[in-house]
User: Fold this.
Amino acid sequence: MELSPRWRKLAGDLRNARGRLSMMVLAMAVGMFGIAAILSAYTILTREIGRNYLGTNPASALIEVDQVTDELVDAVRHRPGIANAESGTSLWARVEVKPDEWMPLLLFVVKDFRAMKIGMVRPESGAYPPPEGSMLLERTGLPLVNGKFGDGIRVQTPNGPKRKIVISGLVHDPGLAPSWQEQTAYGYITLSTLALLGESGTLDTLKVTVSDPSPNVVAIERTVAGLAGWLRQQGYSVGEIRIPPPGKHPHETQMRAVLAMLILFSLMALVLSAVLTASTIGGMLAQQVRQIGIMKAIGARSSQIAGIYLALVVLMGGVAVVLGLPPGIAAGRGLARAIAELLNLTLYSEAVPGWVYLVQLIAGLLVPFLIALGPILRATRITVREAINDYGTSIRTFRSSRLDALLGKIRGMDRTLLLSIRNTFRRRGRLMLTLGLLSAAGAMFMTALNVRAAWERNLADAASDRRYDLEIRLNGPHPEEKVLAIVSSVPGVQKVESWDIDPAAANRHDGLEIARTYPDRGHGSFTLRSAPPGSRMIQLTMLGGRWLPPGDSDAVVLNHMALRIFPGVKVGDTIHISVQGRQTAFHVVGIAREIVTPAAAYTSPEGFHRALGRSGQTNAVRVVMKGHDEKTIGAVTREIERALERERISVKIDFSETRLDNALSGHIYILIFALILMSAIMAVVGVLGLASAMGTTVVERTREFGVMRAIGGRTGTVMRNVIGEGVFIGLMSWGIAIVLSLPLSAGVGRLVGTLAFYFPLPLVLSPAAMIIWLTVIFLGSTAASAYPASRASRLTVRETLAYT
Amino acid sequence: MTAKPLISMNRVFKNYETPSGSFAALRGIDLEVQEGEYVAVVGRSGSGKSTLINVLTGIDSPSSGEIHVASTAVHNLGEEELAKWRGKNVGVIFQFFQLLPTLTVAENVMLPMDFCNTFPPGERRPRAMALLEKMGIAEQADKLPSDLSGGQQQRAAIARALANDPPLLVADEPTGNLDSRTSEDVVRFFSSLVNEGKTVVMVTHERDMTRYFTRTVMLEDGAIVEETEAKAWS
Assistant:
């Protein structure tokens, strides 16, 4: 069937403006690519995180009791509200990663691997269950322990000797963050292996799931408190109870929030690319206003003409969807894989749900359609006389506004440059759109780098808050004087202090210690610490109140993370802390910011003694060394451990600044990468927008260029004029982008900081970001205007003056 | 008894607001044109010729007064109704031809039929070809306007104006961009159309071709200062 003339006109317009339209389609395709990538990653990850985590059948609660027998487990299974119960235990050990260099190892002891029904792990390779004398390792720990499958590695438990055991297999435990991220290895052993390592074969943790299919934390707490009361009645001593947020992976909230933020940014990119479409179509309409007038003069109605241009927009949107969607989905799968690795997830399926395709198809067609609708309707409603008599949709002329008058007064400048500057403001609507595109891209780019700088500043601040090189935690308390003497006698040690520590919980009326901690004992933990009076080993920023007064046994300083344990607590309030079954009241004298440290309450040694009933003993020391480089810290740490070992003092774990840095660096880079990816997408859209706008400008001013050439303007003059205008727009957008990046950086910093540290990141402006973006925008705007400029400069005078 | 005129303009005023104040382009025009007339509108630059043509075709609206073409009160029509009415009833021809540059000559001629749906799709191209044949440029049908000479483009524009077979043709200086020989061809062709029953109103400067016109209307400062029957000119 033959195409009717109006659609042939559309095809002709497409051919004629193929350069600008290609840029428009490309920009929209880039926008589609961004949203397709993020939305696919979001749908894959939110599905798979649930599948991974819930697939382990995570425990609703873990209850520490003195001993868990099979009979007890059986009895607990029949308690009201309890779906299932299992015994188990976990203990902190150490694994040798290099000769005499040890890393924390959290050992999970499983009574019967084959009967495991709660907090299950998935075997990946090797023997399952692990033979006696061997250990299954969580898969992400293998590179960290520098081990190989089948290798023997040295392990030390709190009460046992250093002993070599074989890595007999790898398992995947989706409930744990990757080992490299936490700088902790996770091992799984049988009871007999535990005995071989020198520990008693007692299981002291009761893992339970509740029968309510969709419980909330309050319901679980009620059920578990009832169970704990019953256990006490049966004569069991109930220790810490850990209730992780039900059904939620430790990092799920963060992942969803970050992905939601990226979706927001990609939507912005899509909307901006749609705005570019409107701008390009607007330019095309401005150029074709006379044709619109002629069509109306020969009988076309506005709706018929609007139909032609709206069809063009939908066609462009369709092509953009076809170009942007498949690579976007592929990139989304790649992003999902990268984030899955960060969260220690296995993607069982990378399928993207059908609604994602549908939504994007609709968004790709509808968003540009809706945005272009207004300008198209306005342009096609122009009267024939306006269209024929005035070349353009507006009857305003230069010098009709104050700005024009102001620009008209600029003197003493290169005339070509002056012309560029004045021309910039001729089409204000288009200028605003182009500036909007470029500024948004620049603001996002700078935000990404500002947030990165803020993150680094935050970590640097946290590092400067901690003015020690090493913290050693011991297996059980030892005489303080003896420990301090041993450590301080090691060459290279400048200062050592006792920082006794014990797990704590907010006191409850029933005396139970309930913590919101995951099985890894890290996420959500709370401790009470003894801070030596006058110590300079930590210098925290006080958010309220003051640091501990010397000798005050009632005073406590909470770090900001502890406010999650004691919500709404203010300086001056009294709180009740439960430690080892004892409840103690403390007076809150201060609240401090403490980055990258779990919730903690600091009290004086006297206060610690009051809470625990022990004094003159310590289970943790902090050490300042004479040298602070990684090599020195490593060497001195090894010497301290040897010295303690000689005195039969068993080290639980040690944390050096180096290890802490490694643990933290892994968390942020994927986010920064994603932000920079989004800003790159915006930058591409922005520069394409500028190129498209410059193309339209050149077309509109073709006659002017002809006049310039007729009166002696050379090729270079025309080139300089167009490029000058493009660069001027680019530079203006740079300034606006800096201003826009301030609230954006503050907002994103607040989100990221709150997610990662439960504290907003400071607002940091990265000079590098400004300079890089200035370079990008200068080169980008030069490149974007160079093609239209060279096209304009190649036109002959005859061509330009004959142009209609 | 006189027949009802095809065009009737009654006390038509047109004012434009400009930065330097109000400008009266038409001052109380009264004009009647009978069916089958060939009317030339003449006058100096700025006398209001084009404005007269524009308000007649509905391209512009009068500030006051009434314009009737056949039974249609043009001054009462909205933009959309005007477009529809114009497409079916008036063929408009411009000085600069105003062919759409991305369409071939034949497609340009088919476009009004497409917009007004006056002929079935299958008949549009044969009709366009017939009109181009009549204009003597059938062999140029599949070329783009830019490939044609000025005279050929104007013939194509006339063919387009005739596409929907309107009773009235209105031309604004159709010969202004043509050489004298081609100009005469165009004027003569309009004359032949008048002989076929069309009515033609044309703005022109071609005083030496008055023999082709049935009437000449002279404008000065927006008012008709002289109406001359053909006999008086010849």
Observations:
- Chain B has a mean pLDDT of 87.
- The first helix of chain B runs from residue 49 to 57.
